[in-house]
Amino acid sequence: MAAQLRVYRQKIKSAQTTKKITRAMELISASRIQKAQARVAASGPYARAVTNAVSAVATYSNVDHILTTEPEKVERALIVIFTSDRGLAGAFSSNVLKESEQLATLLRSEGKEVAYFLIGRKAAAYFSFRKRPAEKTWTGGTDQPTFEVAKEIGDALVDIFVRDASDGGVDEIHVVYNRFVSMVTQLPEIVRLLPLEVVEGDEAPAGTDVLPLYEFEPEVGDVLDALLPVYIESRIFNSMLQSAASEHAARQRAMKSASDNADKLIRDYTRLANNARQSEITQQISEIVGGADALTPAR
Amino acid sequence: MADVSGAAATLQVSVVSADHEVWSGDATQVIAKTTEGEIGILRGHEPLLAILSEGEVRVTLSDGKRIVARADQGFLSVENDRVTIVARAAELVS
């Protein structure tokens, strides 16, 4: 009996300790979402300016540029996967990984070879556990992405894209990341980055804005040469920021439900412990009464 | 939106870097250094996309004041009297 009570008390204590941790993580994530969202918003003007410029060049010129023309035959495709460094964020990383598995299956069924760029320790662990190779991996700092890393990834992307498939290059690049829709919704999203399909940022372009005929300086081709890496970087940076905001939101939600579960556990075990204590007392009383009865000589 | 008939009296200029908008406001003139040489932009300039070379962008405000920004490896776009100076790392010098 007393042993039972001790077990319950132990369980209550452990649930309380866990709750303290999950509650702290929840609060930390909640405060970081704001910052991450602000960063997404702050990078908006740049992304918009770059996207507008690239649309202008791509629409009003018919230059043949390697980054914009569809290759006749796609032999290898690259998938860039954005996950988090740390877990305890619900289905954040597994959603993206699941989505990219589906994409990989689809691409393979089209007869393409699939290569990977991984961002975040979770993706790296997923791949190394399955002993699958990845072209390149970036880990660390997924919750606070910097532009330097985006630039590095962008450079690597351009580099692998301009190489021939036989030389380890790729003909197509897809990006899979969690898009931040709201505090409660983050959707895994697949975007084909190259060859170029100009994707607008968060806002649709104003319908009345007809793109004017641009003058280019120096030449159209040179402008495109200079713009496209910038465009790719800005898309990657945007994906990283969105992914970071989503990670915080996902973690906050996961930790909130963990704290709620801990609350429920504590409540249930407290009831059980009270029951056990009470029945222990009852038993002791009945033992005393029974003992006293036995000692009293019968009249 | 006071004057609907004509173009705005000034240029709307914004200087944008990768992680935030550095400056935006109205100006009368923008001077930048492109890979081809210096270029001055006034109101009514034709739409333009130019690659900037290293150097400073000088913006003359409506009240005659001057703003100087660094925009290395960036580009400049002009359309409908809107000037956007975009660079990975843009910053105001003065």
Keywords:
heterodimer, A: 299 residues, alpha/beta, Pyruvate Kinase, Chain: A, domain 1, five-stranded mixed beta sheet, 6 helices, B: 94 residues, mainly beta, ATP Synthase, domain 1, 57% strand, disordered N terminus
Oligomeric state of the chains in view: heterodimer
CATH structural architecture of the domain at 62-203 and 219-247 in chain A: 3-Layer(aba) Sandwich
Quote the distance from N terminus to C terminus of chain A. 35 Å
What is the β-strand count of chain A? 6
Order of helices and strands of chain A: HHEHEHEHEEEH
Low-confidence stretches of chain A: 199-208
Fraction of residues in helix of chain B: under 10%
- Which chains have the largest interface? A-B, 30 and 24 residues
User: What's the CATH superfamily of chain B, by name?
Assistant: F0F1 ATP synthase delta/epsilon subunit, N-terminal
In the CATH scheme, the class of chain B would be Mainly Beta
Determine the structural class of chain B based on helices, strands and strand pairing. Answer: mainly beta
Overall shape of chain B: globular
CATH topology value of chain B: ATP Synthase, domain 1
**What amount of the residues of chain A lies in strands?**
5-15%
User: Into which percent range does the helicity of residues of chain A fall?
Assistant: 55-70%
Q: DSSP strand (E) fraction of chain B?
A: over 45%
Structure description:
The complex is a heterodimer of chains A (299) and B (94). Chain A has 299 residues and is α/β, with parallel strands linked by helices. Chain A has a domain at 62-203 and 219-247: ATP synthase, F1 complex, gamma subunit (Pyruvate Kinase, Chain: A, domain 1). Helix content of chain A is 59%, strand content 13%. Chain A has helices at 2-42, 44-59, 92-109, 121-129, 147-162, 220-295, and strands spanning 76-82, 113-119, 136-138, 172-180, 186-194, 215-217. A five-stranded mixed sheet of chain A has the order 3-2-1-4-5, sandwiched between helices. In chain A, strand 2 (113-119), helix 4 and strand 3 form a beta-alpha-beta unit. In chain A, helix 1 (2-42) runs antiparallel to helix 6 (220-295), helix 2 (44-59) runs antiparallel to helix 6 and helix 5 packs across helix 6. The model of chain A is unreliable at 199-208 (pLDDT under 50). With 94 residues, chain B is mostly beta strands. Chain B has a single domain (11-92), classed as Sandwich (ATP Synthase, domain 1). Chain B contains no helices and nine strands. In chain B, strands 1, 2, 3, 4, 5, 6, 7, 8 and 9 form a nine-stranded mixed sheet that branches. Chain B is globular. Residues 1-7 of chain B have low confidence and may be disordered. The interface between A and B is medium-sized, with 30 and 24 residues. Strand 6 (215-217) of chain A pairs parallel with strand 4 of chain B.
